[in-house]
Every structure is written in C-alpha cells, then in structure tokens.
Amino acid sequence: MKVQPKILLVDDEPIILFYIQDLLSSSGDYIVETADSGEQALDILPSFKPDLILLDIQLPGMDGYEVCRQIRSDNRYRFTKIIMVSGHARVNERLKGYESGADDYLPKPFDNEELMAKVRVFTQLKNKEEVDQIKGDLLTLITHETRTPVSGIIGCAELLANDPTLSAEGRELAVLIAKSGQQLFQFMKNAVLLCKLKAGMELHYNPEPVSSMLANVINNLAEEHLAENIRVATAFDDSIILQADWPLLINVFKFVIENAYKFSPPAGTITVKSMQDRNALLVIVSDEGEGVESHMREQIFDEFAIKDVAHHQKGQGISLAICRYILQYHHGTIHVEDNPGRGARFVIRLPLETIEGLDPRA
Asked: Concatenated DSSP letters for 273-341?
C-alpha cells in the first residue's frame, strides 16, 4: 500500500482552504489538514507531522514569515517542505520568504496544474532527502557497530597466519580472512566518507610539503603490497607547500596510488610525480596496466561506476568518486589519460593560491 504524503494548508480565508483541500483530496494521493492561523499551524505540527506545508504569508497575528522561521528552527521538521503562498508577487516578498526558510513560492491566484506539480515535486523531494539521510545514518551506524567485531576477526586471523603449528593451507586461509576483513571495513569507511562529502563538510586548512605527504602514502602502500613486487618510481618537487585539509586530501593520493596497484601487472612499475604548473600543483600517477577505455574516462569517477557488480573484482566503485568530491572541495580536478594496453595516467590538479585568512608562513 502506498504511503500518502501529508499536507498542511495554512490560510485565513475559508474559501481558499476549502478549494485547495478539495483539489488535493480529489486526487486521492494526499492526506490534508488545515489551519486558519500561524499559531494553530504550529499547534498541529507535532501530531500531524506534514511532509509539505502550503503557507499563506498574510495571516492574522503571526505572519507566514515568522511561522516559517519557527518551523525551520525545530530540527524535527528539517525535511518538511514549505511553499509560501501570497496574493502579491513582488521580488522582495519572495526573497523574504526564502530568507525565512521557504523552499518555493506560489502566487495567488494560482494555476491548478502548477499547484499540483509543485506539491508532487516537493513531496517526492522530501521523501528522497529523508531516504538519503537514513542511508547515511545507517552506514555510519553499521561502520561503528562492526568496528570491534571486524577488528577482532582481522586480529585473530593475523595471529593464526603467524602460527607455525598451522598447516600451509591453514595459514593461507587465515591470510585470506584477514585481507577480506580489511577490505570490508575499508569499504564501509569509504561509503560513510562519501555520504559525508555529499552532505557537505567544513574544511580545515594547514600547510604541508607535498613530497613528504606523498612519500608517507607510498611507503604505507608499499608495505601492504610487498608480495606483489611492484616498484614505485618517484620524481618530486620538494619545494611545493600546499595548504589543504590534509586528513581529507591524503585520501585522494592514497586511493589513486592504490588504484594503480590494483591494475598493475606483477613486477610492474608505478610512477608518481609532483610538479608546479604556474599557480597549480600537478600530481601524476602512472601505471603499466591495461589502461582505461575512452568511454570510461569520465564514468570511473561516478559513484558505483562498476555496472557488472557480480563479476567485479578490483574495487567497490566509490574510491575515485570520493577523490573527485574531495578535490572539488579544494577547487581541484582529476582526470585520466591513457593508451589502452600501456597503462593509465591519472592527473590531479590543485590550486596553490593562498587561502584567505591563513598565514602561509604558519
């Protein structure tokens, strides 16, 4: 059974209330409640919990702007959509409505089809935003709740892998368990990070030498991939200092270099370079893998770009999407250049301008 969105109509003119209520109710798609004042609307909110409010501006006592501000100050109604309704269409009136927290504006007299279209769009949008929030909260909860048990699985598996009394086959299975646990936990952390990036994050800048940050990433990954015998060649400009949110930005270098490891042949070479190009930092990561086909050069930066999930083996399809989001926060870019069969070349560009309010000598 389809859940019917709930709509609250707020207007001091009974004929308007009756007309809109009849219009919405006749569709059979909505549950409608009415209020003839701002005070009554605020009293109805806790029990009715509307998905959408059609709010007249000119109300006796508390006007629509103040009602809107009070609703927006209550976190319980952060997803509730508000459309301001008025007999005037002046720009300053509409702007005041938006500043009060309204999502849209509808002038009187209104067109029935336009009203129904706005109601349909904003009730759907409210539902989508709530679902997105639930997804993000659920991922965060799962990651938090599984941290301890997954860490226990990984730790025990590593102990078994180093047990000399265990057979060679047993140690091999223990290594596989530990590696699988690490991959699972990393994927969950990446999914939570992607949700946070899409929701909006505040950056905290500090200056660091790019070469040392890259070197740390490379050294850590080299230890993880020691058995693959892949060489990493570097060419860094040690003079470049970049102001960035480094705990966030470091993920970009980690994911791109990790991607190069995934697609490099055994005993292959990965090349990592950093250089200054006018007022920008360039970091270039090249591998000797199969390369990226031309039609996939943009798609690989989309979330879950891997379509054939059932046969996908090399990554979860979100690491490169995270890279693009992080770089957008830093006003940077990433793209891939390649020659299929001779490897891929990822190019990261970041501006080197001084961040306003931050002393570059700090």
From this structure: EEEEETTEEEEEEE--SS---GGGTTGGGSTT----GGG--S--S-HHHHHHHHHHHTT-EEEEEE-TT
Q: Which residues, listed in sequence order, are joined to residue 86 by a DSSP beta bridge? A: 107
* Mean pLDDT (10-residue bins), the chain, 362 residues: 84 91 88 93 93 92 93 91 83 86 88 90 86 72 76 87 89 88 81 82 93 96 89 95 96 95 91 94 93 81 56 57 94 84 89 59 39
Give the Å distances, CA to CA, from 213 to 236, 242, 245.
Answer: 11, 10, 12
- Gap between the Cα atoms of 38 and 57, Å rounded: 9
Give φ, ψ of 206 to 5 degrees.
Answer: -155, 145
Q: Do the Cβ atoms of 90 and 107 come closer than 8 Å?
A: no
Residue 335, strand partner residues: 347
Contact 41, 65 (CB under 8 A): no
For 162, the token pair is: 């180093």
In whole angstroms, give the CA distance from residue 207 to residue 240: 10
> Torsion angle of alpha carbons 187, 189, 191, 196, nearest 10°?
-160
What is the C-alpha to C-alpha distance for residues 204 and 208, in angstroms, rounded to an integer?
13
Q: How many CB atoms lie within 10 A of CB 3?
A: 8
Are 60 and 37 in contact by the 8 Å Cβ rule? The answer is: yes
Distance CA 339, CA 174 (A): 38
pTM: predicted TM-score of the whole model, two decimal places? 0.64
> Measuring CA to CA, how many Å separate 195 from each of 250, 252, 256, 297?
18, 16, 19, 23
Q: 101-134: b or e for each residue (b if 16 or more CB lie within 10 Å)?
A: bbbbbbbeebeeeebbebbeebbeebeeeeeeee
Is the separation of the CB atoms in 274 and 301 below 8 Å?
A: no
Omega before 109 within 30 of 0, i.e. cis: yes
Question: In the block, which residue shows the tokens 């990446």?
Answer: 190
- Which own/partner contact pairs does 16-20 have at CB distance under 8 Å and 24+ positions apart? 16/56, 16/108, 20/54, 20/115
Query: What are phi and psi for residue 39, nearest 5 degrees?
Result: -65, -45
